[in-house]
Fold:
Amino acid sequence: MKAVCLLSGGLDSSTCLAQAHRDGFDCYALSFDYGQRHYAELESARKVAKALAAQDHRIAKIDLRAFGHSALTDEIPVPKGRAEAAMNREIPVTYVPARNTIFLSFALAWAEILEANDIYIGVNALDYSGYPDCRPEFIHAFERMSNLATRAGVEGRTHIHIRTPLISLSKAQIVRLGQELGVPFELTHSCYDPDPAGRACGQCDSCLLRAKGFHEAGISDPACA
Structure:
């Protein structure tokens, strides 16, 4: 069985890839060079894909800076030092317009070529920082659309399932699952605004949620050692 696994190089997507492997799939990892403000995550994705024995790892190049309007693809400051309540009060400026829709569309194209029925994405609806394209409603709608959108689907050669094994887990539960699955945490990268050497800032929303997850799980984060 084949599965396309979206892989950013972060904690969640790496754990998702490891879960797909444990579920018995041959995993085809897909990452994106989309004009994000840093490339440390892509280097992490390469290392994680190799460590977790992905069958193939592709990096698709697209340029979402053409539209901007996100702190990750435009000259907008990344929020730092926010309380969790503030993170979830409104959709944050680190939201990239339609990003998961775009990424899943690329994954769907590759799945059609591979004649794979399964796409894994590490979205999470609890510690999700207000992103609308991490909600179950979005995932269900995209899955319905996927089975109307491809030649392989119309001809009955594929039936797409969008698998979201982390969607109802807290960040601490994701950390524990990742440890159980043997995820190389030291290779992962979660920061929205690393320094030029690729070191995490420790204060953006993603860094704070990651730190909270490791703390609540009672596990030391080797990426911060």
Q: What stands out?
A: The beta strands are 2-6, 26-33, 56-61, 118-120, 161-163. The mean pLDDT is 94.
